[in-house]
Amino acid sequence: MTDLEKAREFFKNDLYATELSGIQIEETGEHYAKCSMEITRKHQNAYGGLMGGAIFTLADFTFAVSSNFNQPKTVSVTSQINFTGTAKGKKLISESQLIKDGRTNCFYQISITDELGTKVAFATFNGMKLS
């Protein structure tokens, strides 16, 4: 079984992200994840725009995969998201970047674009290692 298959198997139990939001893990690596989410009507607000919460869920899940897969159990302590543009495509793609991996804390930045390359948001996460 590949690391990607192992990650998908483990994180399938994150039902809110995988089943309700439809997020897929596309790639995994050491302190890295790439995830995607097809934009559907259930991700839109009353005006038809993409809900900020849907975008944040994608960022949060990407952080979870990056910081937990083949790593010590890690939880988010603080996070911040900045919305930079409106998605023009039909799919969001998120990628993580490890900023610092300390003894008890870690810091990641998650970038979110659509499949057309439109920059939609970026988020930062401070995680605490529990084990």
Descriptive notes:
With 131 residues, the chain is of the alpha+beta class. 24% of the residues lie in helices and 43% in strands. The protein has three helices and six strands. It has helices at residues 3-11, 15-20, 52-68, and strands at 23-29, 32-38, 74-83, 91-101, 105-114, 119-129. Strands 1-2-4-5-6-3 form a six-stranded antiparallel beta sheet. A hairpin with a 4-residue loop joins β5 and β6. The mean pLDDT is 96.
Topology:
Layout: H1 3-11, H2 15-20, E1 23-29, E2 32-38, H3 52-68, E3 74-83, E4 91-101, E5 105-114, E6 119-129
Antiparallel strand pairs: 1-2, 2-4, 3-6, 4-5, 5-6
List the main descriptive attributes of the protein structure presented here.
131 residues, alpha+beta, six-stranded antiparallel β-sheet, 3 helices, 43% strand, globular
Summarize the structure.
The chain is of the alpha+beta class. The protein is built from three helices and six strands, in the order H-H-E-E-H-E-E-E-E.
